[in-house]
């Protein structure tokens, strides 16, 4: 039993089960840690500019003053607003007077304070987004839970900044919508069996929409599919019945082939008494060899083992050979 967002318990799926922890696998939660280097660089620029202005004031005036500290602070702020650093995996979109001007990074880049603004600092590493479709109806009206993960990356920072407001949330919503649509077009058994086809279909649909935002989809992987417990037994019985049906069909085909071969053998033995007697002797020999002892046979069959009978058989076979 799991708790919904309303605080109410949902018992539709029988077993106690928590939904897929999407937030745990989303890359966005750890993106702030990648900005530590840039923040330290900005702090270094501020301190260096402040100290440089104070040092110049001391050389010129001989002693510090309040106005000197004010000027040093203003210069340090302007330096911080002008000198930036982009990490190896970042691409920065710079606007000039509200219009797109250029993309910069990685490394050091400069901007004009109050004239140029940083619109987006795009992370171009492979991103991971978890998404789910909870209690979504399939084409045969079966409510199922499907959890999946999406691997994607930003290949065009300009489009990611100018074509969509929040590309990260947009990718997540598009993926969830595509998953629900794909589930609604397939039956419950098809969703459970055709995972690879569903992955490929989702990747194609999601990338068709996100490519306009400068985002490429690397792969989509279905992680978990949960079917209501009440339907699992019915689907299991259906699968067993289908396997039994296939087994009976295979057995019928084998019986058909065996009967055809027996009919052909009967036609061969019907026109050749010697071949029939030889087959009878062969069967008796196999019986004795398999049992490891002796076999009691009627006298009519034992006549076939006498010397006279064997000579007659040989002469008959030679005559047929001529």
UniProtKB/TrEMBL annotation:
The keyword Transmembrane applies. The keyword Transmembrane applies. CDD domains: SPFH_eoslipins_u3. One of its GO terms (cellular component) is plasma membrane. Pfam families: Band_7 (PF01145). Residues 81-239 form the Band domain. The chain crosses the membrane at residues 38-60, 66-87. Keywords: Membrane, Transmembrane, Transmembrane helix. Belongs to the band 7/mec-2 family. PANTHER family: AT06885P-RELATED (PTHR10264:SF19), BAND 7 PROTEIN-RELATED (PTHR10264). This is Slipin family protein. It comes from Slackia equolifaciens.
């Amino acid at each position: 039993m799991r708790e919904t967002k309303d605080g109410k318990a949902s018992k539709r799926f029988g077993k106690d089960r928590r939904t897929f922890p999407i937030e745990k696998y989303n890359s966005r939660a750890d993106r702030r840690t990648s900005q530590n280097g840039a923040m330290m660089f900005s702090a270094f620029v501020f301190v260096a500019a402040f100290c440089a202005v104070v040092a110049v004031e001391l050389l010129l005036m001989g002693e510090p003053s309040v106005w000197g500290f004010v000027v040093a602070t203003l210069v340090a702020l302007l330096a911080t607003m002008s000198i930036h650093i982009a990490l190896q995996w970042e691409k920065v979109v710079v606007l000039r007077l509200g219009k797109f001007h250029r993309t910069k990074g990685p490394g050091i880049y400069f901007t004009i304070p109050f004239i140029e603004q940083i619109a987006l600092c795009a992370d171009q590493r492979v991103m991971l987004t978890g998404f789910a479709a909870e209690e979504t109806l399939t084409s045969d009206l079966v409510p199922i839970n499907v959890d999946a993960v999406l691997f994607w990356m930003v290949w065009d920072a300009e489009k990611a900044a100018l074509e969509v407001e929040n590309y990260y949330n947009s990718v997540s919503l598009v993926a969830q919508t595509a998953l629900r649509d794909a589930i609604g077009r397939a039956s419950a058994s098809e969703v459970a069996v055709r995972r690879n086809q569903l992955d490929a279909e989702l990747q194609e649909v999601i990338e068709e929409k996100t490519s306009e935002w400068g985002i490429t989809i690397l792969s989509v992987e279905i992680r978990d599919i949960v079917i209501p417990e009440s339907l699992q037994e019915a689907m299991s019985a259906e699968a067993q019945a289908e396997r039994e049906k296939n087994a009976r069909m295979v057995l019928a085909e084998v019986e058909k082939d065996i009967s055809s071969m027996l009919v052909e053998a009967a036609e061969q033995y019907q026109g050749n008494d010697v071949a029939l007697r030889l087959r009878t002797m062969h069967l008796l020999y196999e019986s004795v060899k398999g049992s490891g002892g002796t076999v009691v046979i009627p006298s009519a069959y034992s006549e076939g083992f006498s010397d006279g009978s064997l000579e007659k058989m040989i002469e008959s076979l030679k005559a047929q050979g001529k």
